[in-house]
Amino acid sequence: MNITDAKSAVTEARTGMAGQVEHVRHELSGVRTGRATVGILDSVRVEAYGTQIPLNQVATLSVPEPTLIAAHPFDPTQIGAIERAIQSANLGLNPSNDGKVVRVPIPALTDERRKEMSRIVHTLSEEGRNSVRNTRRHVNDALKKLLKTHEMSEDDERRALHDVQKVTDEHIQQINALQKLKDAELLER
Questions:
Q1: What residues make up the domain containing 182?
Q2: Which position among 3, 40, 49, 69 has the lowest Cβ density within 10 Å, counted as fewest Cβ atoms?
């Protein structure tokens, strides 16, 4: 952290917290809802050419229907490896292929599974909020050090702490909105 004044403190807080919000957005995209999205397959790695490669680097992913993901392999000889990788990814998905395309139907979620996914969404969101708060704490500590070494006046420190708190509140609201949106997707039938 390179905090030398109030402005750099707020900038540092905004940058760090924006990164946390993006991380939560990415994590939530991987939570499976009843609707097909290619983000569900982000964690899938395919054994190809002697190494583990992310699925989106060996196939083009598309969503032709709301409950179906299609994977068009760049190399047709990898179709079996892609199918095995999706099956072994513990996503509860059962792909099939026709020799050219791997089709991944997205089954409807049961009420029990929806509740479980909702708990995961809440956990990921809370972790994101905690990360935002940790960023705030680090920035506030840096501001207090500047005050202690007389590199900043008390008024400037107080103003900067207030601005950092405003930035924190904004980012926590963004995470809350992401959580609410994902919960709404989970409850959709």
A1: 6-30+110-187
A2: 49
